[in-house]
Amino acid sequence: MDSMAPFSDPVLSQQSAEAVIQLAKQYIQMHGRKPVFMEVCGSHTMALAKTGVKTRLKEYVQLIAGPGCPVCVTDQRTIDSMISLSNGRGIILCTFGDMMRVPGSRHSLLEAKTKGKDIRVVYSPLDSIRIAEQNPDKEIIFLGIGFETTIPLLAAAIKEAEQRGLTNFSIWMTTKLVEPVLRVLLDAGEIHLDGFLLPGHVSVVLGKESYSFLTEEYRMPGVISGFEPVQLLSSIYKLLQLCIENKAKIINDYPYAVSESGNGAAKSLMKKYLKPGDEDWRGIGTIPNSGLVLKDNYQDFDAKKKFKITIASPRKTKCRCGEVIRGLTVPEECILFNKACTPANPIGPCMVSAEGTCAAHYHYMREE
Amino acid sequence: MCVGVPSKVIKLEENRALVNVMGSKIYVGILFVPEVKINDYVLIHAGQAMTIINEEFARESIEEWRRIIDGQHGTLF
Ligand code: SF4
Ligand code: SF4
Question: Are B33 and B53 in contact (CB under 8 A)?
């Protein structure tokens, strides 16, 4: 697309990086330290590492990866439950590809599949509806993980299943919402932050207005950003400007995709089928009302109600994903990083997910 | 997980659209963008178009950024 191409133009990126560095120097002079920004979204973490932006800015801006990758924040018990679902008779488990290699306490979905369980990677939750129609004698369960970007798609699948009168389809919901986890991070005060690089895709659904709690309650600035190098640098630049001027404002730096109030159709679909529910976050614990679950009148589509799963407490590993997700540590400080834990043999989900912080550091930021 | 890929709409049907994603043609749902038109660019996530990209805004953003740079470093382009 013509108008998008310049966002990854190398010359423009170089010059953008220079502009950011100049402004960051000004901030450092004013405050005697680097500004600290958190990128909430896993796709941003990956893009910042992959494009070299993070390394380029290292001396001037501290970028901390936040809890924005749905695979990484999925609690170990939940992963174990999802894997044990595949043990049931006559069950076809459908999932996004990202989940396949996430290690459970004993094995991953991929290993379960090689042992003969019927586990299928689908591109869209709607694909699993088709599978349900083609297999009326089987129970089809979709593993519904994701943030606000993905949740509308889960609601759409329920709508479709309802319209087609399917009785052999359900979703194992384990969805996450951005606002509650940001509140927990800010309330805990474990890390000092000067601003947020806000997730572009989540904001497509939520809209700019959903972040007003950051400025009103926490006086925290934020910039909604796209994913190409120039877009990321532009957003960091604007965040720096807000910090230098001491303005707690939200800027929409992705206005060609994100609107003020988000996607109304997606929001109303979520509202129709889902209600807030408690969710367990890896390394953080249970956060009240931090996810969406199926409303009572759609319980027939709720795999948690349909299939009772009890699992033992997960085995402890030395994986520090919990701290990585909360921004308290960097992957290099985990003793397993690049030793026992690599993308080929991941110990924790931060190394599995394409958007995981440990994977981003492994692929793009290791000093050989 | 939520990779949004910009794609051009080339054909519209009742509740889906044929789009061109980096050269390959696929059908996506248009439940969330009922107002979509042929030749629009949309961001795709897991088989659904999630939003229509406003090309004019996109172009403006890049221009604005060029101006910031020009202001800092003289005329480099
Ligand atoms: S796009 Fe959404 S779900 Fe994907 S990593 Fe970013 S915030 Fe998380
Ligand atoms: S390097 Fe591996 S074990 Fe360590 S925190 Fe990351 S994912 Fe967990």
Answer: no
Per the CB < 8 Å rule, is A69 touching B1? Answer: yes
Query: DSSP secondary-structure letter at A249?
Result: -
pLDDT of A1 reads 45
Tokens read off for B33: 């963008």
Beta carbons within 8 Å of A237's beta carbon, 6+ residues apart: A16, A19, A20, A23, B68
- Cβ–Cβ gap B47/A269 under 8 Å: no
What is the nearest CA distance from B54 to chain A, expressed in angstroms?
4
With a CB cutoff of 8 Å and minimum separation 6, the contacts of A310 are none
Contact A230 B59 (CB under 8 A): no
Q: What is the model's pTM?
A: 0.89
Ligand nearest to the CA of A102: 2
Whether the pLDDT of residue B62 is over 70: the answer is: no
- Among all residues of chain A, which has the CA nearest to that of B21? A1
Cα nearest neighbour of B44 on chain A: A201
Cβ neighbours of residue A145 closer than 8 Å, sequence gap 6 or more: A70, A71, A74, A96, A99, A174, A175, A176, B1
Task: Establish whether residue B22 lines the binding site of ligand 1, counting it when its CB lies within 6 angstroms of any ligand atom.
Answer: no
Whether residue A11 has pLDDT greater than 80: no
| Measured distance between the N- and C-terminal CA atoms of chain B, rounded to whole angstroms | 36
**Proximal ligand: closest to the CA of B2:** 1
Mean pLDDT of A273-288: 94
Neighbouring C-beta atoms of residue B35, cutoff 10 Å: 8
Question: How far, in Å, CA of A44 to CA of A198, rounded?
Answer: 9
pLDDT digits (tens, 9 = 90+) for A148-189: 999 999 999 999 999 999 999 999 999 999 999 999 999 999
Q: Decide: A287 and A180 in contact? Cβ < 8 Å.
A: yes
- At A322-366, the pLDDT tens digits run 889 888 899 999 999 999 999 988 888 889 877 789 998 998 877
